[in-house]
Each structure stands twice: as structure tokens, then as C-alpha cells.
Amino acid sequence: SIIVAGGDNDKLAQVQKLINDNNLIDKINTSKIENNIKTSLVEKLNEIKGKEVSTVGNYNGIPYDAETGEELYNAAQAMLKKYGSSTGLCATGVSRTFAIAFDIQMGGHGYQWTGNMNKLVEQGSFIDVTSEFKTSADLANLPAGAVVTWDETGGSSGGAKYGHVCVADGKGGEISDHAQSSIYKSVGGSSTTYHVYFPIERPVIAV
């Protein structure tokens, strides 16, 4: 299917309805338009009709499946209720969250979750939207179920060594192995590279 932002998706659906409701292709075929023009028009209309309208919604114009996002956020809350809160185990918390939400197993340290998420991008269930969130301050605007990963900084312990991963709560905060009211702006005591992923459909295959 074609994944497009909500506005363009709506326009495609409207054009397809217009073609079908008014039998435009049949009318063109039986018209007195010159054959070469007629052929070109019919080919273009059939191309438009053949496009698959995406069911993916959008968040501020960015493709985003709210149902999957809420499912992941709710699973993060359920994970905390089941296992309790801790610190220093962000990747464990997110691994448990994905297992609860989608029954898939993914491991690794925080920074290794970038690889996990990139595999889900390849499978078509998430998209990398990092370029839409140019500064770490923008992370406060993420919708529920967005996933953020942070690279390690080369330190000897904590986030500097292992990076970070979390699930956004849609209210400016995050859940990893515990909930907090704001998303990290940096890990390991210094600013480092982060990656942002939006769900666009429910993942079904472990990576």
C-alpha cells in the first residue's frame, strides 16, 4: 500500500470515488475525444484507481498509527504494574513492553535497540522519523507509542556505556523500566545521537 500523510490520502480517496461514481472511464471510452488523448486519459485514470488507499493515520502530517501507538503505551504501563519500577534497565523494560504488546522478543542494550527498530522499519511496521524532530527539545512533542533510542557515548557505565531506549507516553514523558514526566534530552552526561520511530502498523514478527 502507499503510505501517505492524512491529507493526501483523503484526496486520493476522493478522486477514486469521483472516478467510480461518475463512470468516468466508460464515458471517456465512448466519447468523441481523439483516440490518442482518450488512451492517455484512460491509462491515467486506471492508474489512479489501482492505487491502494493507506489506512495509516498521521500525527502532525507524519504517518502514525494511533491504535498501535496506544497499544504500545498501554503495554508499557502494564509492564510497570507487573514488574515494578527500576533504574538502569531501560532495555529490559522496553523488551518486556514489546513482549506484552506484540508477543515478540527483542533484546540488547539501549543503543542496540536502534538496530531492533531499524529491522521493524524494514518490515514495514515502524518508520524512522528522526529528521522531523531536529532537537532533543522536540522529543517532548512525541505521540504515545513513539520509540526513542540513544547511542552510547563511549563511557564506562550507565547511559554513556549502554545508551538508552524508551516509549513515549504522549504527554512529554517516557516509560522504559520506569516512568518519568520528561523524555531524556541526553544520556551519559552529554548530548548524543538519538533516533525516533513511529508505529504505522502492528508488528507481528520478532527481529
The tally of strands reads 8
By secondary-structure content and strand pairing, the structural class works out as: alpha+beta
Order of neighbouring strands in the sheet with most strands: 3-8-4-5-6-7
Termini gap:
22 Å
Number of contiguous helices = 7
**Helix percent band:** 40-55%
The 3D shape can be described as: elongated
What's the order of the H and E elements?
HHHEEHHHEEHEEEE
Describe this structure in words.
By secondary structure, the protein is of the alpha+beta class. 41% of the residues lie in helices and 13% in strands. The protein has 7 helices and 8 strands. The chain has a 6-stranded antiparallel sheet with strand order 3-8-4-5-6-7. The chain has a two-stranded antiparallel sheet with strand order 1-2. Helix 4 crosses helix 5. The relative contact order is 0.17. Residues 1-7 have low confidence and may be disordered.
SSE layout:
Blueprint: H1 6-21, H2 24-29, H3 35-50, E1 58-59, E2 62-63, H4 66-83, H5 90-102, H6 113-123, E3 126-128, E4 147-150, H7 158-162, E5 164-168, E6 174-175, E7 179-180, E8 194-199
Antiparallel strand pairs: 1-2, 3-8, 4-5, 4-8, 5-6, 6-7
Helix pairs in contact: 4-5
